[in-house]
Amino acid sequence: MGTDVFTVSVPLKRSNVLYPVEKDASGNELKMYYKIGDIDANGHVKAGVVAKSGQEYADYLETGVDTTLADYGVGVTPKAVINSPLIDDDGTVTGVQWKTGTAHAITAAFAQPNSTTSPTADLGTVIYAWSTSDGGATIINPNSRTGATISFATTGAKTITLKATNAVTGVSSSTYVNLTAIVPPINVAWDHTSKTASVTNLPATTKYVRIYWGDGAYTTNTITVGNTTTSATHTYTSLTGKVIPLPPNLTVYRS
User: For the segment 29-47, what is each residue's pLDDT rounded down to a tens digit?
Assistant: First the structure.
């Protein structure tokens, strides 16, 4: 007695192979797949997200996901660019001057811009890193493109370097700017009503300040080390003509 062999062919969908249908105890298909971005950084499903079936997820991957590699930074070469002009604390001197002890903001352009005209983000992920030639400098948010600040404690020539690295390929680009860190200029303000001279931005090592009033008199103030301000009053008794410097002449003695 012969044996009959029957062959039944059914369409096999790719989604059934990659994302097979699973059912619960009642025979209902389970929806257990989530789109990119549906899961937070802690691995939890975000509120309001609805899971997809295997077929729905396969359709999403084929039609809803950007497959252009450059959009993820693949093959994109970063270009580090420091935004200019930089803050300049003394416009009367050639070059950029930064006062010591003051945090200065510094920013960079997108290293892998998503547009050549009006970029709004980087293509892929870029790692930004700020550094300086001064190991004693204070850098806040050294890996922020727009939120970094740098403060120098010592005077002299300084170099600030920006390195931008493509997080996917590891390719990097660097650029730098030069500036001079200066002692903050001492400011003297004269209030004619109260006959008071106010001095600010004194060096932290100041021991005493002598103010010459222009009529032969002077006032000497002892300064506690670390203080950067002082003031003194003076009343002019003579109405005869004299040369009165405004603000009064100032001599600062430091330790």
Answer: 888 888 877 887 678 888 9
Of 140, 159, 42, 153, the C-alpha closest to 95 is 159
* SS3 call for 62: helix
- What is the radius of gyration, based on Cα positions, of the chain? 34
Q: Report the C-alpha gap between 206 and 244 in whole angstroms.
A: 25
Q: Tens digit of pLDDT for each residue in 132-185?
A: 999 999 999 999 999 999 999 999 999 999 999 999 899 999 999 999 999 887
Q: Three-state DSSP class for 255? A: coil
Contact 129, 92 (CB under 8 A): no
Using an 8 Å Cβ cutoff, are 203 and 230 in contact? no
Return the CATH number of the domain spanning residue range 97-182.
Answer: 2.60.40.10
- Which residue in 77, 199, 74, 179 sits closest to 132, CA to CA? 179
Q: Can you tell me the distance from the alpha carbon of 29 to that of 15, in angstroms, rounded to the nearest whole number? A: 14
- Written as six digits, the tokens of 131 are 């550094």
Domain boundaries, the chain: 8-65, 97-182, 187-254
Q: How far is CA 99 from CA 57, 186, 188, in A?
A: 58, 11, 17
Please state, as a whole number, how many other Cβ atoms lie within 10 Å of the Cβ of residue 191. 11
Residue 174 CA to residue 59 CA, distance in Å, equals 42
Termini Cα distance of the chain = 117
Confidence (pTM): 0.61
Lookup: tokens for 65: 């996901």
